[in-house]
Amino acid sequence: MMTMTKLDTWLDRHHAAFTAIRRDIHAHPELGLEEHRTAALVAKNMREWGIEVTEGIGGTGVVGVIRGKRPGQRAVGLRADMDCLALEELTGLPHASTYPGKMHACGHDGHTTMLLGAARYLAENPDFAGTAIMIFQPAEEGRGGAEAMLADGLFERFPCDAIYGLHNTPGLPASHFGTTVGPFLASADSWQVTFRGVGGHGGSQPHLSTDITYAQAQFVLGLQGIVGRNVPPLDTAVISVGYIHAGSTEAANVIPSELVLGGTARTYSAEIRDTIERRIAELAAATAQAWGCRAEAHYHRGTSPLINKAEQVEVAVAAASAAVGADHVDSKLRPGTGGEDFAEMMLIKPGAFTRIGNGVEADGSFKGLHTPLYDFNDAIIPDGIRFWVNIVDEELGMQQQAVAA
User: CATH top-level class for 3-184+305-404?
Assistant: First the structure.
């Protein structure tokens, strides 16, 4: 006879319903700070389950508060993101996006659904000591949703002793989990440099111009010298060029007088971040001067590096191990240089961010995040819910009853 927990039987009963919710959200994607339908769906469901709900936090954010029936002062925050990407979906699935140019290509539809599932189970089974705070965040994809919620008093209004985040990862086997102590994701900054000079006729009088294309070429080559010679070998930094704009395809014989280029920079530490910002500006100025033109550099600091705390990583590893078995949990997963604005919340509260595998095909292939063929794997919804419930168990102490099956 197989022994199942109360949560296992509950998940078997409700998996199809949560799959339907996930696919409904997927079919109706909304960009950051525009998640009105999604937020309303989240709030409506939680209210129907008897959860105390507050809407409009940071614009379209939603928070649900579930109080345990046993006495306890500790509060734990569980966070999911709700927004989509500006991308045209090409999956052809029955639940594909019905909104042109918008797509849930990062799995936030699945993240929202897994946290909703945990919210329902915890509301029906509040056998814990303390408070579970369900944080449904808008605008993770570069529109400042975490900072908007924080500016709206998120943790003053809903105090948390620790916070946790979960993100799916294509290429990691389904329902495997991974995290690590320390730097886990990088800062996600952007930079832009504008070169200005004297344009001219590229065929008959190029010598009368100050050719900004030379300056740009030397600048782009020099960028990797910053990584190679200004960043210590054991530290990590990425500088990439994302766009270069100058001149016109209709005027090939014109040397342009203005050129704009920009890209992204990724780092794990404040010191290296400062170095990258300073050196980009210095390199732009120096190469411009060498070619008799001018340069104007701008550096925009995006999300901060995400640093996992040891105590919360221990909790997350225990929760994941209880969900899928310790052999499916990597407690020393290699960090990545992607960005995540949950880092802004973790600057204020200690926390841990964890990955859950979205799956990989038998031949090793997978559809990556931020691509038009990606789809969240509905098969991992139960294990995501288990993870969240187990976080509350580890933090606030639940009693999960066994039942015969």
Answer: alpha beta
Per residue in 70-108, is it b (16+ CB within 10 Å) or e — as a string? eeeeebbbbbbbbbbbebebebeeebbbeeeebbbbbbb
- Decide: helix, strand or coil at residue 313: helix
Give the architecture (CATH level 2) of 188-303: 2-Layer Sandwich (3.30)
Averaged pLDDT, 175-200: 96
For residue 2, what pLDDT is reported? 42
Tell me the pLDDT tens digit for each residue of 317-365. 999 999 999 999 999 999 999 999 999 999 999 999 999 999 999 999 9
Domain ranges of the chain: 3-184+305-404, 188-303
Let me know if the fold of 3-184+305-404 is the same as that of 188-303. no
Predicted structure pTM score: 0.93
Strand residues in 95-161 grouped as ranges (E): 129-137
What are the residues whose beta carbons fall under 8 Å from the beta carbon of 355, sequence distance 6 or more?
Answer: 166, 167, 168, 169, 172, 177, 178, 179, 333
Give 204-251 pLDDT, tens digit per residue. Answer: 888 988 999 999 999 999 999 999 999 999 999 999 999 999 999 999
For residue 60, the tally of other CB atoms under 10 A from its CB is: 27
Label residue 130 exposed, middle or buried (CB < 10 Å: 0-12, 13-18, 19+).
buried
